[in-house]
Amino acid sequence: MNETRQAPPPPEVFIIGCGDIGHRVAELWKQRGTRVRALARSEERAAEYAQHGIDAVRGDLDAPATLKVPASASVIYFFAPPPTKGTTDPRMQHFLGAISPSALPTRIVYISTSGVYGDVQGAWVTEESPTNPTTDRSRRRLDAEKKLRAWCDQHEVPYVILRVPGIYGPGRLPIDVVKSGRPILRESESGYTNRIHADDLAAICVRAGEADAPPGIYNVSDGQPGTMAQYFKAVADLVGVPHPPEVSLEEARRVLSVEMMSYLTESRRVNNNKMIQRLGIGLSYPALSDGLPTCQA
Ligand SMILES: NC(=O)c1ccc[n+]([C@@H]2O[C@H](COP(=O)([O-])OP(=O)(O)OC[C@H]3O[C@@H](n4cnc5c(N)ncnc54)[C@H](OP(=O)(O)O)[C@@H]3O)[C@@H](O)[C@H]2O)c1
């Protein structure tokens, strides 16, 4: 990442949905002296946060009465996924409703998905491309984006929406899949997918939270679209097992899960120019071959 920027760190960030990426972001902010608080929906999670130097704020996005956004939170990260059903994201609505109009944050950063563009048959998508989600999963994300934008416009709070593709990194490779010998869609029929290394994504989130980072919508990607088949084969090579058997699209429809098929039947290439140029991002892992070695157990 670019080390020459001088934006002073915010005094406090509040992370809603502090899982894998949240912890990575928390660590980076703590290194800069920023206090990190995070929403915990269980005592166990609160205790785990404490071990990482993160102050827990108890609350559950599915129970709006339990939610309270600390007045001291200057930068808020919303990393919680929508519920698993429906076409809207009530969690985003509950969160926005819990912010006091007399204690507004300086900005909100949201991780969305590049799935909001839907299937464009392998074309490149920029932030100007129309959204056209083809799964309920992506419709929920687009609904969350719209709710956030409307609220931020109304309250004059800057937002950054990061449209994120597949995240990979240590602890998050499909190792069980490649070890299971389950089939994958064959290379010649695979569409384009896009990826970002978890540590690059965390650094992008930190940059997005800086006061001088231009607000708006940003595509996130390492800029090297590939196929799922390439990805699974590269992971198999990394862990030293044979490549999974490849099947035709027709056969894949019979043997793969509906969720996996929804990923496989959308094809797009995510253009990351705006992220690189306007946010000034220098990726540590600009290709899968750079990032996979960091994922060795
Ligand atoms: N996987 C991908 O390739 C991909 C691609 C694009 C976008 N994303 C999205 O990127 C975001 C960050 O990913 P991640 O890997 O860091 O996710 P993660 O590890 O699954 O963390 C999600 C967090 O959200 C919290 N959460 C869920 N429901 C909640 C609720 N009702 N109330 C309060 N907290 C709740 C979870 O809390 P608990 O710890 O209590 O469960 C967890 O800490 C997620 O929204 C993910 O869906 C992922």
Enumerate how many helices there are, as a single number.
Answer: 11
How does the overall form come out from the CA principal axes? globular
Q: The CATH topology is what?
A: Rossmann fold
Total domains, how many? 1
Q: What structural class should be given to the helix and strand makeup?
A: alpha/beta
Mean pLDDT: 95
Query: Which hetero ligands occur in this complex?
Result: NADP nicotinamide-adenine-dinucleotide phosphate
CATH architecture: 3-Layer(aba) Sandwich
Task: Kindly provide the name of the CATH class.
Answer: Alpha Beta
Q: Please report the distance between the alpha carbons of the first and last residues.
A: 25 Å
H/E series: EHEHEEHEEHEEHEEHEHEHHEHH
How much β-strand is present in the residues? 15-25%
CATH superfamily: NAD(P)-binding Rossmann-like Domain
Radius of gyration: 19 Å
Q: How many distinct beta strands?
A: 13
Which strand order do you get reading across the main beta sheet?
Answer: 3-2-1-4-5-7-11
Q: State the helicity in percent bands.
A: 25-40%
Q: Could you describe the largest sheet, including whether it forms a barrel? A: 7 strands, parallel
Uncertain runs are none
- The protein's oligomeric status is single chain
